[in-house]
Design a protein that fits this description.
The complex is a heterodimer.
Chain A (H helix, E strand, L loop, with lengths): L1 H29 L7 H22 L5 H29 L4 H27 L4 E3 L1 H7 L3 H5 L2 H7 L4 H19 L1 H11 L1 H6 L4 H27 L3 E3 L4 H14 L4 H25 L5 H7 L2 H16 L20
Antiparallel strand pairs in A: 1-2
Chain B lengths: L1 H15 L4 E12 L2 E12 L3 E5 L6 H8 L7 E6 L2 E3 L4 H6 L2 E4 L11 H6 L10 H15 L14 H14 L4 E5 L7 H16 L3 E6 L2 H7 L2 E6 L2 E7 L5 H9 L16 E12 L5 E12 L2 E5 L6 H8 L10 E4 L7 E2 L5 H6 L2 E5 L15 H6 L14 H14 L15 H14 L4 E5 L7 H16 L3 E5 L3 H7 L2 E6 L2 E7 L5 H9 L17
Parallel strand pairs in B: 3-8, 3-9, 6-7, 7-8, 13-18, 13-19, 16-17, 17-18
Antiparallel strand pairs in B: 1-2, 1-4, 4-5, 9-10, 11-12, 11-14, 14-15, 19-20
The chains are: A mainly alpha, B alpha/beta.
Chain lengths: ~325, ~525
Amino acid sequence: MNTLISWLHSSIIYGTVIMFGALGEILTEKSGHLNLGVPGLMYLGGFAGFAGAFTYERSTDSPSKLLMIIIPLLCAFFAALLGGLLYSFLTVTLRANQNVTGLALTSLGVGVGTFGSARLLSVTGSQSYSVASATSAVYTANLNSVFNLGAFGQILLSYGFLTYAAIALAILMNYFLMHTRRGLNLRAVGEDPGTADAAGINVTLYKYVATCVGGGICGVGGLYYIIEYSSGKWSSQNGLEAIGWLAVALVIFSTWKPKNAIPASYLFALLFWMATNLPTLTGIRISTSVTELLKMTPYVVTILVLVIASTRKKKENQGPASLGRSYFREER
Amino acid sequence: MKDNNCDMEARTEAASAPNGCAVRLTGITKRFGSVTANSNITMDVRRGEVLALLGENGSGKTTLMNMLSGIYYPDEGTIEINGEAASIRSPKDAFDLGIGMIHQHFKLVDVFTAAENIVLGLPGKSSLNMRAVRERILEICKKYGFDVDPDRKVYNMSVSEKQTLEIVKVLYRGADILILDEPTAVLTPQETERLFDVIRNMRADGKSIIIITHKLHEVMEISDRVAILRRGEYITTLETKDADEKTLAEAMVGEKLSLNIDRPEPHGLVKRLEVKGLSCVDPEGVPTLTDISFSAYGGEILGVAGISGCGQRELLESIAGLESTLPGSSVLYYPDDGEPEELIGKSPREIRSLGVALSFVPEDRLGMGLVGSMGMTDNMMLKSYNSGAPVFLHKKDPSALAGSVRDDLGVVTPSLSTPVRRLSGGNVQKVLVGREIAEAPTVLMTAYAVRGLDINTSYAIYKLLNEQKEKGVAVIYVGEDIDVLLELCDRILILCGGVVSGIVDAASATKEEIGLYMTKAGGPSPAPSEKGDDVC
């Protein structure tokens, strides 16, 4: 029972990290831009958020709880937003190749984060990591620790507010895309920028805003990973980059629909933790080589979903039609 | 509501200036790199008239209209709308001025519904009230006589439905000046008639309509005045009632020409292809061709008519070996000597080497057969790269071929290595058709060879096809313009919904007869149904 609960618990936290990344990338891709810089943006957001939290915690003896929430959130969001802005400038304004730019952004984000973390670690004198424990405590404050509701509380209520914010964000984004004018316009920009342009939509603006805000959301995912998943512990070898790639895969897995990202990311995380938890749960002893194979499950499932989605050929389940292509109005 | 206000304002202005111009262009010039698309154009459009804009390919009609609709911005010159100077920097500016353009390539988002496409980009409350949108759409449809289902997805629509949707879209935005870029190119005669009725309704409602077209008889039928462009320059504007097809064509081309297509009597007919029981299904298992049987003879032109998407592409592709067929299908090829050969099951290259050539001009022209970013020479090589010594490419022959295609067909290109994507549509097509003819095939299949081409080039291509026919080549010509099919071909096969609905003798058939075959499998019935085109 305890194994099952801890499996679900860790899956929901891990899934939330991916969900933030995937939601940010869905918003970006809806504007027709494939940003492969998600890992870099999450890394950047995670680092900037942590740096904000860490600096604030050390700057005062009695940090305010509100500021402890706001400062890291803003740092993470805007650092990653700047990354997104750089990406938009290169791909929207200069029409650079999106794949190359995205990959470069990943390297850049990880590089900047690593460089910055070296500075940060030199402050504490620690060799490998530093901790923003007070901030983490605020972020992970939850109802379960107050009421102690047993298994139910542990599975559903034992998370910090950002976990629920991710679900709310997914639902909001879904409403935005499907039921508002701006959402409709954004989808049109990603499907067919020429048509959107002819309809009087400011294609460049939509692309910029979607890519920047999408980047910012990815950054919050990075912050969540550091503060909640790693309990406020930052080290430059933190595995955020790997999660970023999962988020990109999850966009396809959820067929570019924010509402699908909720179950998809939890399922993804369940599969990810299957290798560690399933043997204990079932009592079957398996060799470590099989464990490594089990860890592949989320990726195998992604490939299966891709295969199924592409054979069904339903247009609604495909990515935005002009994804990855630059738009130039006077091209002929 | 805002749209309605906009509508009202324009109306009152129209009333205050009874003889005013809706649009006045003065000294408009537009260049693309070294190419001048429009040079010093000065013309006007009156309120409540249908103005036909006539000109050959590359004469700059679409470019000029794109400047009115905000896609391009003029390098020089001024635009006045309803007597006031206007700077149209984006399509949004154009809407605000009441200008709506229906593009040749529809500007519609495939995965959206009709209503979503219509409401796209409009200002208003941030949450969408689709019910109100639907009501307004139906109101507009009722007023002008359209038939649009607001909840239908665009990818489920026929070409004619998409066009109707485009028109409703601009009317929804309160457009008073409508620009239609070659609206009839993809319609059946019956659909064209319906479109013209709608255009007349809109004119009666006081709207100005500019229609870009190549079809002279349509100009005569629908327009009040005709403005003529030639090589990017404005030539003249004529009252339609004072003009006839011949004078218009001459003004457009700038020289005397005859408008008759030769049809030499076919002689020495030899059976080349015999198609028996040919059937195909698309990947979803929906039949695209059902039990097609016919023969094609060397020395004649066999026309293929039908609404687009009724199996023309599949027919040609299955003969060329590009499409898999159902068991029981048979395509026999009769060479000059020896036994007939079965083409089904052969690879496209084997079929080509037997002398069966296919040139298919798709709607976007570059989709099939040419690589947009390569020059003419390289595109010629796509068909011959495999001949000659191994490993290294032979550029000499293709380059000579490219040169002769350019000279014979008058392809306008800065050089043989200029990417074909940069050429105008007509020139791209000349390259495509020229290359296929140069292969000296025994069976030549062309689809939409003159799609969007101007009169001069079209006639050059008809002449080329006739030359091939005289040489004893079996020509299969898939066309859109029924008038041309009737004049050029010896026999016409009509496809409807993937079925041969009739094979007629072109010399004796009438346009109406073919139109009915096109919309009704099994041919004309005593009481042709109005909704016949739903069959496809």
